[in-house]
């Protein structure tokens, strides 16, 4: 990570920030995420929260607040553009950070997320890394409209796709299945056009994915994906756990999810990441309970500048 540059007397420059590399692949890469612990003595306004990702040189920041009375823990997620109702790799980062704070080998918590949602998370510390996972809320799936496809596919540079669905988890996003890994890797979206289309359609962004060969019939299904979200100030996400949870829900709905799935992301950005997802509820439970997670590394805290 580069050292962020302070701007004048910005009060956020002195705020302690911990960088968590979330959703590592084989112990490397991952999505750098800024984690800030808010206390009764340190309460930020939303403008200051929006400044943290820029100062910390990360795409996202998660703010963790533990109440001194009952020990409840709330999380909020921000990019430079504003607050998000949910952030999967931010939740992985928060769980890893909290687990490191306890020092215990295993950790469980019910996180209070925006919108009154509760995220049941757990983490295991081992060898300097933290394996974290959590249960996401229900995923709503629907067919995209002709208008949505007419605006989004040209902006993505995709004249033809294998299938597409709009999935909502926190905010709606378009899941687009393309023929091959090569198609995913070659994507070069028109980011200004995609940002405008997503704003017009009130979508978070577009998650393009393709299946890749797995290691046998009992292995997790393997995918490669890229997530473009320029409308929220993230041209491309290194790791997007919530969209991966949406993919698991989609595969489950189609009857094709057996042993869970793993999605590789971030390679085009020089930071390989892997997210895992599975259906955690008993068969026949609707809507399905999706569990998503990844491996994280927690860095030493530093000031915001």
Description of the molecule:
It comes from Streptacidiphilus jiangxiensis. Keywords: Isomerase. GO terms for molecular function: isomerase activity. It holds the Pfam family PhzC-PhzF. The chain is α+β, with helices and mostly antiparallel strands and 305 residues long. It folds into two domains: 11-133 and 296-303, Diaminopimelate Epimerase, Chain A, domain 1, CATH 3.10.310; 140-288, Diaminopimelate Epimerase, Chain A, domain 1 (Roll), CATH 3.10.310.10. 22% of the residues lie in helices and 38% in strands. It is built from six helices and 18 strands. The protein has an eight-stranded mixed barrel. A hairpin with a 7-residue loop joins strand 15 (261-265) and strand 16 (273-279). Helix 3 runs antiparallel to helix 5 (191-201). The radius of gyration is 19 Å and the shape is globular. The chain starts with 15 loop residues before the first strand and ends with a strand. 49% of the residues are buried. The model is unreliable at 1-9 (pLDDT under 50).
Radius of gyration computed on alpha carbons:
19 Å
Main sheet summary: 8 strands, mixed, barrel
Percent helix range: 10-25%
SS content category: alpha+beta
Spatial strand sequence of the major β-sheet:
1-2-3-4-6-7-8-17
The third-level CATH topology of the largest domain is Diaminopimelate Epimerase, Chain A, domain 1
CATH architecture assignment of the largest domain? Roll
Q: Could you name the CATH homologous superfamily of the largest domain? A: Diaminopimelate Epimerase, Chain A, domain 1
CATH level-1 class of the largest domain: Alpha Beta
Question: Which blocks of ≥5 consecutive residues have pLDDT under 50?
Answer: 1-9
| Overall average residue pLDDT | 89
Which word captures the global form?
A: globular
Q: How far apart lie the N and C ends?
A: 12 Å
Strand percentage lies at 35-45%
How large is the count of helical segments?
6
Query: What is the count of distinct domains?
Result: 2
Protein name: Phenazine biosynthesis protein PhzF family
Keywords: Isomerase
GO molecular function: isomerase activity
Family: Belongs to the PhzF family.
């Amino acid at each position: 990570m580069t050292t962020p540059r302070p701007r004048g007397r910005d009060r956020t420059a002195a705020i302690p920030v911990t960088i968590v590399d979330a959703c590592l692949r084989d112990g490397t890469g991952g999505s750098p995420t800024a984690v800030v612990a808010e206390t009764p003595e340190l309460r930020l306004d939303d403008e200051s929260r929006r400044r943290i990702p820029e100062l910390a040189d990360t795409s996202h920041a998660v703010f963790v607040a533990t109440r001194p009375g009952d020990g409840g823990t709330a999380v909020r997620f921000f990019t430079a553009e504003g607050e998000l109702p949910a952030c999967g790799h931010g939740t992985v980062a928060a769980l890893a950070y909290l687990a490191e704070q306890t020092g215990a080998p295993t950790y469980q918590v019910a996180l209070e997320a925006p919108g009154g949602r509760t995220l049941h998370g757990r983490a295991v510390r081992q060898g300097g890394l933290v394996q974290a996972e959590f249960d996401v809320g229900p995923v709503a799936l629907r067919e995209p409209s002709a208008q949505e496809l007419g605006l989004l596919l040209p902006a993505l540079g995709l004249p033809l796709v294998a299938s597409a669905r709009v999935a909502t988890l926190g905010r709606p996003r378009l899941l687009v299945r393309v023929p091959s890994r090569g198609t995913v890797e070659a994507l070069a979206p028109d980011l200004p056009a995609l940002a405008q289309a997503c704003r017009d359609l009130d979508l978070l962004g577009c998650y393009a994915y393709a299946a890749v060969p797995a290691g046998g019939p009992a292995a997790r299904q393997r995918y490669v994906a890229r997530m473009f979200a320029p409308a929220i100030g993230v041209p491309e996400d290194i790791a997007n756990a919530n969209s991966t949870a949406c993919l698991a829900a989609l595969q489950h709905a189609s009857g094709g999810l057996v042993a869970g799935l793993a999605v590789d992301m971030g390679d085009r950005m020089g930071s390989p990441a892997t997210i895992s997802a599975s259906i955690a509820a008993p068969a026949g439970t609707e809507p399905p309970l999706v569990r998503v997670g990844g491996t994280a590394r927690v860095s030493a805290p530093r000031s915001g500048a």
